[in-house]
Amino acid sequence: MDARYKSREIERRSLDVDGLKRSFLEWLVYSVGKDARAATRRDWFHTVALAVRDRLVDRWMDTTRTYYQKDAKRVYYLSLEFLIGRLLSNSLANLGITEECRKALDQIGISLEDVVDAEPDAALGNGGLGRLAACFLDSMASEALPGYGYGIRYEFGLFEQRFEHGWQVEYPEQWLQFGNPWEFPRPEVLYPVQFYGRVEEFRDSVGEKAYRWVDAERVLAMAYDTPVVGYGGNTINTLRLWSARATRDFNFGHFNDGAYMKAVEQKVLSENLSRVLYPNDATEGGKELRLKQEYFFTSASLQDILRRYLQHHTTFDNLPDKAAIQLNDTHPAIGIAELMRLLVDQHGVVWDKAWDITRATFSYTNHTLLPEALEAWPVRMVERVLPRHMQIIYEINAKFLNRSKARAAGDNGRLSRLSLIDERGDRRVRMGNLAFLGSHKVNGVSALHTDLMKQTVFADFHAEFPDRINNKTNGITPRRWLHQSNPPLAALITSRIGQGWIKDLPQIKALAEKADDVVFREEFRRAKRKNKKRLAAFIARQTGIEVQVDSLFDVQVKRMHEYKRQLLNILQAIALYNEMRDNPTIAWVPVTKIFAGKAAPSYHMAKLIIKLINDVAKVVNHDPSVHDNLKIVLLPNYNVTAAEIIMPAADLSEQISTAGMEASGTGNMKLALNGALTIGTLDGANVEIREHVGEDNIFIFGLTAEEVNDLRASGGFNPREVIASNPSLKRALDMISTGVFSPDDPNRYHPILQALTDGGDHFLVTADFAAYCEAQEQAMELYRDQEEWTRKAILNTANMGWFSSDRTIMEYATEIWDVHPVKPEHVEDGED
Ligand code: KOT
């Protein structure tokens, strides 16, 4: 190798300031093709990202080679969503070169923050489920686990949300518009995925009945790899996302005029498969393209997994010892039928053996009990799109129901509930039942949610397989959600207890004793104040609203959904507004209510709630009689990047879902870790947060899941009576219904009022209103005593160690996957 080339190679890996600086200048000119004077912020982002990427490629390859050479058991996390956000600061922090990079850029006259801010936010997910997948990738790499993420490389991520006249309007999110420096296209990693066609029966070589799928349409799945840097930069795992490509038939065919245009149209249509992320959170659309997306990425991933396995093995007997496949909800559950198809039809494995292998390989995480989110595909659609899979599902079902018949003697209801086919109305395939049956372990995402799974949707399956359901309470990565997003608090913590907490979050417990230290409290408050100033500036930039930094920042950020009850929050805001106007002489605790969240484009009620919040904000924020003691802000386009600014600045964390409806929540964890006090119901992981932070350091209110269940079952709940007996609630609702907030259209909020009254108030907003207001008053009272508030805030941060996704992921690794940490070695050859 020539010496110049070699020295450049070494330079590419240099982690010091000079090496970084030289690299930046070289990348800017030779790859981005710009001169330093002409370079835009975006050019600098691409430059820095490419230079940083150079510094992880070697270790990435070492990691992959080590897994290969050791034939390590891998875990494959199949998820239709990965809500990653930005990667530059994350990569710098995990490689430990943030300060070196900052200095190198300073010397060129560029600010690192500006560069970081030029990165688009990769929003390949809707909310909690997708963000959890991203936290898990970080934790798997940080724990040196051989973990791969598999998903779809959507060209358009979750829509961009803007408000026009207070209404949500959706715009396409074009995150790939200017290229993505983190991804490596792998045009050679290409798998065919089939749709439609029919199944042919034939006799195999030993005269047994066999099946083949013929006359199908084909699409190719092409891989794009993104390195996933673990903390410390030693393990660098892979996120492999599939993009749809038309088959080569198109490229090589020759056509007459008409056929040519048709063929091009066909190409565009088949490549639409990976065009756009479905924007529904916890609702199921039932659209054919969605089913095709699910099968597309699952099939490509399974083909890739088997290809990797076959590099070391000749039979499939050991597949479960070498591969664990985790289904992130039922979206990839068709993979159970697909693995059966690949094993039986393509590799000649006998059915019973294939079934044992399949069940031992798969496990399934359930993320919601909401009936509208449980996937159930029309049988007629599955028959048409995936005819062989429909047969396989029937076969699995027949064998299972036959076996269960004996035990279900006399209970036909039980058998029909266990069936993979819902025979009521148009027949449907129950993907949850398929996922359950085809997995050796099934988990919920918080203790309460797992219990409810056993009692409700999976009660019959639980009776049949009592060891299958287990709990894995969610977690969040402390790297992104404290170390990276909250520099003032991270620095304070490290100054007192060292930096061990970044990798081992339970160490943060050592802060608990400092809650009584007045100096520490002062510093903790100062860190919070800095973050609040940053958020106030962000709010001013995004909305033009000026907020008081020293007001109580009361934060509810999450998808807009009736069960999450943003409505309860805004009703309390109206009640507080009225009290402030009625009692102008009281020294009110100034409050800033901060909301953010997207509504699914077809979810009219959620969109109407957005409009209501914006309408109430307009009235309240301009009313001089409240003396700026109350401000209401609805930030547009909530995403991971916005969350990184909001979470560190919150005083109060709103986790107020109808008990029993939020599977876990993870925003609740991010906020508490950053020192916000929770006001919440006993729902999802709030229950466990209370146990860890202590009941004196959290505001719990409202009906429990059991009470909700009983109240609904009794049929005796009458929201009109509740409203009539609560003057402050009645007044708030009257103001809405008489057009105080919508003078241009007084009837605008009729659907909301209707839902809360004649509609029966399914989400029990009115039932919890009084208890919620009381809890809010307690919070405001406590906030007057800044020393006591800070003490509790510190105790929240100190007691959140258990909620690290490192803990969650190690529980999956030991209790479900049986995968173990593998430390990468510098090895020379091998392949993936
Ligand atoms: C379900 C179907 C389609 C799209 C999204 C979902 C979904 C999302 N189901 N649950 N979630 C959220 O997952 C988070 C991570 O486990 C939970 O914390 C949260 O409570 C769920 O709502």
Automatic annotation (TrEMBL):
SUPFAM superfamilies for this protein? UDP-Glycosyltransferase/glycogen phosphorylase
Instruction: Answer yes or no on keyword Membrane.
Output: no
For this protein, the record's Pfam families field holds:
Phosphorylase
* Signal peptide start-end: none
Q: Does the keyword Glycosyltransferase apply?
A: yes
Q: Known InterPro entries for this protein?
A: Glycg_phsphrylas, Glyco_trans_35, Pyridoxal_P_attach_site
> Which CDD domains does its entry note?
GT35_Glycogen_Phosphorylase (cd04300)
Cofactor(s) in the UniProt record: pyridoxal 5'-phosphate
Query: What keywords tag this UniProt record?
Result: Carbohydrate metabolism, Glycosyltransferase, Pyridoxal phosphate, Transferase
What reaction gets catalysed by this protein? [(1->4)-alpha-D-glucosyl](n) + phosphate = [(1->4)-alpha-D-glucosyl](n-1) + alpha-D-glucose 1-phosphate
Query: Which GO-annotated molecular functions does the record name?
Result: 1,4-alpha-oligoglucan phosphorylase activity
Q: What is the E.C. number? A: 2.4.1.1
Instruction: Give the family this protein belongs to, as stated in its UniProt record.
Output: Belongs to the glycogen phosphorylase family.
Stated role: Allosteric enzyme that catalyzes the rate-limiting step in glycogen catabolism, the phosphorolytic cleavage of glycogen to produce glucose-1-phosphate, and plays a central role in maintaining cellular and organismal glucose homeostasis.
Q: What protein does this entry describe?
A: Alpha-1,4 glucan phosphorylase
Species this protein is from:
Azospirillum rugosum
Lineage at the top is: Bacteria, Pseudomonadati, Pseudomonadota, Alphaproteobacteria, Rhodospirillales
